[in-house]
Every structure is written in structure tokens, then in C-alpha cells.
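ok trying again, last paste got cut off:
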Amino acid sequence: MHIDRFEMREPPPDPAPDSLSGFRVLVVDDEESIRFGLSRLLAQRGAQTEAAPSIGAAVALLEKFRPDAILLDLKLPDAEELSGLRRLREARPDARVVVMTGFGTIENAVEAVKMGAEDFLTKPVSTGHLFHVLGRIADAQRLERENRALKREIDRSAPSSSGASRRRSPPSCRKPRGSRVRTRWSS
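nice, full thing came through this time. structure:
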């Protein structure tokens, strides 16, 4: 068991080598060794990665690289505290952002989550926890895609909006014609 700054928990099991196959991650950190290390680690799990040393570079990358998740360092040269998260959310409101920092406080974590961060990790980041968070994001996105596909399928199979499209209850739920619903107040 390891102790995290905010709670004690068992580390999640190490994911399969290809558990992030096709998953796209943008790593935003001003330290080159962290960008390189995280990108390499994620690539070993099958993820496609891009890296940026600043928020400005990350926003520019969002034009050509549509990440499924963004790993964001809280302390960057062109962003103070949570302003980097705010700028990324403005540039891409649907982005799943995981904030990482070596200077984490509970207040920063709460504020980051209120601003839409998926999670708040303290450095050094536990790889097991990182993969758990990214796996959770990947699962949620897979379920969202399936849900959209099912909704499209239902919409295609629904009757047209002409007069015949009025939805009716199944026969077992309908009352027989001419029957009257009796309540204890009716005579």
C-alpha cells in the first residue's frame, strides 16, 4: 500500500501493454524529461502522444492533434496556477484534462475539479494511478461513443415525423376500448 497526499489506497493493477491502443494523449509540461518520459511510457501502452512545453504550444497543437486526454502540469512559464487549465478548456471545452503538479494543495485540487479537470495528480506521478485515470477516461469515452451510435440507430429506425409517428403504448399497457378507469372518487 502506498500513501497518496490526499488518501491511502491500494495502487491499481498495472494495465495490459496495449491497454491504451489508439488513445491520444497530449502531454503539457515545461520539463523536457517529463514530456519525454510520459510520452514514451504512454507509447509503450499503445497511446499516440504529442508533447508541448507551454500552454501556447498546447493550444496550437489542438488544431491538428485531437487528444482524448491532456496531461497538464500546473506550473508552466506562460500560465499561472489554474489559468492554463482555463485556457485549454476555452480552446477545447470537451477536453478531458488531468492536472499534474509537484506543488499540489487541496484547494488547487478542488478548484481544478470545479473547473472541469478529470483528476488531480501529484508528482512524482504513480504510473499505476496514471494508467487507472486514463483507463477510466478511455472507458467513459467508449461508452459515450456507443451511446451516440445507439441513439443514431434508434433515430433511424423510428417512424418518420408524418402523422403515423405518434408513439403508442405496447398492447399489454393499453386499457381496453370502452373501459373506464375507476378511482375511489368516481361514481
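cool. The chain has a mean pLDDT of 81. The radius of gyration is 24 Å.
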